[in-house]
Amino acid sequence: MPIEYMFYIILFIISLTAILLTKFDHNGPKQALPPGSFGWPVIGEFIDLQRTNRSGKPDKFITERMERYNKHIFKTSLFGEKTAVLCGPAANKLLFTSEKKLVQTFWPPSLKKLFGTSFFTAPYNEAIRTRKLVTLFLKPEVLSDFVGRFDSVCKKSIREDWAGKEQVMSYSLIKKYAFAIACEVFASINDPGRQERLLEEFNLVLGGVFQLPIYLPGTRHYKAVNAARVIRRELLDVIERKRRRREMMGGCKEEEVEDLISHLMDVRGEGGKGLTDEEIADNILLLMDSGHDTSSSTMMMLVKYLAELPECYERVLAEQKEIALSKAPGELLKKDDIQKMKYSWNVVSEVLRLSPPIQATFRRAIVDFSYAGFSIPKGWSVWWTVNSTHKSEEYFPEPEKFNPSRFEGDIPAPYAYVPFGGGPRMCPGREFARIEILVFLHNLVREFRLQGKQETRGSLFEFGSEEATDSTPASEPEKEERCCCVSPSLHKRKAAHGYRTGEEDYRIAADLVLSLLFRRCLHRLRPSP
Ligand code: HEM
Questions:
Q1: What is the three-state SS of 32-82?
Q2: Closest by CA position to 265, among listed 290, 284, 291
């Protein structure tokens, strides 16, 4: 046989083997990639994601593709990554229970520069060790001792920022309140001027979270990194002062844990290893950041829904009134009061179902694996999503209807209700958020009367016209002083980095015109001594 024939035959055999090897692995035929589209080169389907976010229907990006391609899985390309989006409770379960086996939580590398050594961005083993130490403080049994602190910050905030004003911008004030809570409980920073300065820095950090990591003067990333540095310095200063104070007291700790910084200065992990000051500062920075933005979004949406749904509002009001009636004048809320807020929490849970502040988070496939008959290659970004279940008729009948009774009795199917994620990276701040939001709700409905006629202009609601004030229900004897609180549409919520609740929702909520009746004499509701 001529030598060139031999060459062609060998080449044919090698090519055939290569084709077969790529088609079959040792477990049998390789499965197809998930259906879907990678969209445009480089930008992928990011524009579509932003469009649905901005239209106020962030869930559409997911639900439309589930319908078009496959209800369990589809592929897309987002943030420069080939991405598999896994949908439904079984997918959530798989991703939440396969950390370090199939997938690993990851965040864009630019975040490392912002959150440094915190457990958010640290390498896996380090992250798990630090997360354990930090989150001991966020457990219900520890936080329950802080309920009074939450309440006094909230009362102060309502007294100083809301009451007696002609107009208020609800979102910015809610954010200010949430940030004040984080400052107080995490670092005992209670000077309003200092809080305000820090909040400005945090806004810069937030603005740079999902930006290209270009560290050049003027870029958002540059501003964010520098703002994080300023905050870190400030926190290190708080730690240093605390150390000096302790030294002056002969090395004694505070009798009770004063705040998260004190907790982190004392806590020890395996082998008695504690955290360095830098680690403490970075973790506080992380929690202050993640701890105020998500919950303030939720509180604002809560105000929107209460304004739209008078029957829910009345039931919340009745529950909160009963709690207030059980308290002595001036007595702050306690852990037991929070436990009594069952209906109110169902309302908040429904807000979190319909308008979750986080739509999805990132995991990275660390091995090739398959799901629903499709293969997901190692290295791909894998998303679990809130809306593939929250907005599904299968798990939440009439999914678009606001119905807090869903959370009474039968609880949602496992892994179907996931506003806080799940698994080892589940949100560690959920109890913190619960207390913060319920305390806010208690004070809001106790201090103000949401009322008025509903006048629809598109999806905009107005409350509290003069006529409506006259028709305030007779059950509200304390309508002494009118406080008209307005949230005009001036507020521009920064675009949703692709996965936060839609901008339009915020616009609607911020556009709510709330006419609220300030109760001058809260104690009048209580029985006379
Ligand atoms: C309504 C309020 C909140 C919602 C809906 C929420 C939701 C979430 C979600 C979905 C995740 C990702 C979980 C995952 O990937 O499986 C997360 C992570 C996280 N949340 Fe929250 N969160 C809220 C409030 C808070 C608060 C108040 C804090 C701090 C006190 C906080 C701190 C964090 C941190 C540090 C992480 C990262 C955890 C890790 O990577 O190990 N969150 N949150």
A1: CCCCECCCECCCECHHHHHHHHHCCCCHHHHHHHHHHCCCCEEEEEECCEE
A2: 284
**Is 419's C-beta closer than 6 angstroms to any atom of ligand 1?**
yes
CB 529 within 8 A of CB 335: no
Give the strand pairing for 369-371 and 381-385: unpaired
Q: Which two tokens mark 360?
A: 């999805």
Q: Tell me: the pLDDT tens digits for 131-143? A: 999 999 999 999 9
Tell me the pTM: 0.83
Strand partners, 363: 105, 382
Question: 389: exposed, middle or buried (C-beta count within 10 Å: 0-12, 13-18, 19+)?
Answer: buried
Ligand 1 atom 19 nearest Cα: 427
Using a 6 Å cutoff on CB, does residue 415 contact ligand 1? no
3-state secondary structure 364-386: EECCCEEECCEEECCCCEEEEEC
Ligand 1 close to Cβ of residue 357 (< 6 A): yes
Say if ligand 1 is within 6 A of residue 118 CB.
no
Distance CA 197, CA 479 (A): 36
Q: In the sheet where 103-105 sits, what is the strand order?
A: 73-78, 81-86, 381-385, 360-365, 103-105
Name the residue at shortest CA distance from atom 27 of ligand 1: 291
Q: Residue with the nearest Cα to atom 23 of ligand 1? A: 294
pLDDT tens digits for 176-208?
A: 999 999 999 999 999 999 999 999 999 999 888
429 C-alpha vs ligand 1 centroid, how far in Å?
A: 6
Distance between Cα 38 and ligand 1 center (Å): 29
